[in-house]
């Protein structure tokens, strides 16, 4: 075989290794392709050959252990399979990939000088759905600490807390576990009774998930003391009626036992208790008193009371005018019509109770008395005015008469009249 003294220059690329034989008519090249695969998936590692002349091709793992020697298996690992060996392409397949399989796989071409190209296998570990850890119970008026944990991913996952469409900033920590990472995000939020059942979510983002995300939903469980309210009956209770009270209880946890009692006394014999309901049939005034409903849980106790007032039954009678019969004559007597009225007043002993009262009022008699009084007052006024006018007129008449007599005295004095005409005295 003749050799020509020719120097060939091959352009080096990032992922191409060229083996040029000195003083040969051609150069041989090998090209390796990088691979990225999800953990548990299947990876195909390819070595492309150029101007292959039958030289030895060796493929090694990252620990430089020979996997295949010219297409022949050299390492007993059934996960590796030679799927293709041609003058242009050598391809092996690795199933059930783990993070311990990642690294550089060597495609070596043995000529006068050994040349190799490295195919890098990268393994992605997507995160599982994160978990939420609660450090302590959320109690009304306090704070709750929630930690979202993604225990394993590669590369490290990104965590985000959300509530009502808004992000809640958290304190992020990351731990390197060798081949994988664990990530956590912790938030502290104040809680009230109204926050019980509020929805939060922790979202995990990762390159292996693309635009998707792993979400863990969580609802706040806020503990608080119970509240108690007795639902009273409507209207006024009288003897013979039935009483039914309902004790409305809330709390977290919800109290299981509801206790009914009567202050300073025992419950009536006819009292019936069924959970939150308290009933008494055929009420009497002996049932009067204050009844108490109590409930408690691990975070407190609450109670409400109801004061029962039972009133007498009021009999209502009506006056029926006498009706003459044909068998026996009756003497009719004038009867005063009576109107039966109903009114409601507040009981001074119980400001919350309303007492119904009945009264029969003779409006005809009262109207006659009022009319007589008005008539008498009018007559007195008329007489008073008449006397006043009469007295004033008499005074004016005497005054005018006195003036006339005074004029006659003056005229007699001027005319010199003697005493024979009579002596007159005038009182001015």
UniProtKB/TrEMBL annotation:
Pfam families named among the record's database cross-references: C2-set_2, Ig_3
Domain Ig-like: 127-216, 226-309
Membrane topology listed for this record: Single-pass type I membrane protein
Main location: membrane
One of the GO BP terms on file: bulbus arteriosus formation
Transmembrane segments: 363-387
Signal peptide as annotated in the record: 1-27
GO molecular-function terms, A-Z: vascular endothelial growth factor receptor 2 binding
UniProt GO cellular component terms: cell-cell contact zone; membrane
Entry keyword Lipid metabolism: no
CDD domains on file: IgI_2_Necl-4
Subcellular location: Membrane
UniProt xrefs under PROSITE patterns: IG_LIKE
Keywords carried by this UniProt record: Disulfide bond, Immunoglobulin domain, Membrane, Repeat, Signal, Transmembrane, Transmembrane helix
Keyword Transmembrane helix assigned: yes
Family: Belongs to the nectin family.
UniProt name for this protein: Cell adhesion molecule 4
């Amino acid at each position: 075989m003749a050799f020509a003294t020719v120097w060939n220059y091959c352009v080096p690329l990032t992922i191409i290794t060229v083996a040029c034989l000195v003083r040969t008519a051609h150069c041989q090249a090998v090209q390796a392709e990088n691979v990225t695969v999800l953990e548990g998936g299947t990876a195909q590692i390819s070595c492309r050959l150029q101007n292959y002349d039958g030289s030895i091709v060796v493929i090694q793992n990252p620990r430089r252990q020979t996997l295949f020697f010219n297409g022949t298996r050299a390492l007993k690992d059934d996960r590796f399979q030679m799927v293709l060996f041609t003058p242009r392409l050598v391809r092996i397949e690795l199933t059930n990939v783990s993070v311990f399989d990642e690294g550089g796989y060597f495609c070596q071409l043995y000529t006068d000088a050994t040349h190799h190209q490295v195919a890098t296998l990268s393994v992605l570990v997507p995160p599982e759905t994160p978990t939420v850890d609660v450090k302590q119970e959320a109690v009304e008026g306090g704070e709750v600490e929630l930690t979202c944990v993604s225990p394993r991913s590669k590369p490290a996952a990104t965590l985000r807390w959300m509530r009502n469409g808004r992000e809640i900033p958290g304190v992020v920590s990351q731990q390197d576990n060798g081949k994988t990472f664990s990530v956590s995000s912790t938030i502290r939020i104040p809680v009230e009774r109204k926050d019980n059942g509020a929805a939060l979510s922790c979202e995990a983002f990762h390159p292996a998930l693309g635009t998707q995300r792993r979400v863990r939903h969580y609802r706040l469980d806020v503990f608080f003391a119970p509240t108690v309210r007795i639902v009273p009956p409507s209207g006024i209770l009288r003897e013979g009626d039935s009483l039914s009270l309902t004790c409305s209880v809330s709390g977290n946890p919800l109290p299981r036992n509801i206790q009914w009692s009567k202050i300073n006394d025992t419950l009536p014999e006819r009292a019936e208790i069924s959970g939150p309901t308290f009933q008494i049939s055929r009420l009497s005034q002996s049932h009067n008193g204050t009844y108490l409903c109590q409930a408690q849980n691990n975070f407190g106790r609450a109670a409400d009371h109801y004061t029962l007032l039972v009133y007498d039954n009021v009999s209502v009678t009506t006056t029926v005018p006498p009706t003459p019969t044909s068998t026996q004559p009756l003497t009719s007597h004038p009867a005063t019509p009576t109107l039966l009225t109903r009114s409601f007043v507040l009981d001074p002993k119980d400001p919350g109770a309303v007492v119904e009262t009945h009264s029969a009022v003779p409006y005809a008699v009262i109207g006659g008395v009022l009319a007589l009084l008005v008539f008498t007052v009018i007559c007195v006024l008329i007489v008073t005015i008449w006397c006043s006018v009469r007295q004033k007129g008499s005074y004016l008449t005497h005054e005018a008469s006195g003036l006339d007599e005074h004029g006659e005295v003056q005229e007699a004095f001027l005319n010199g009249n003697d005493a024979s005409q009579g002596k007159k005295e005038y009182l001015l």
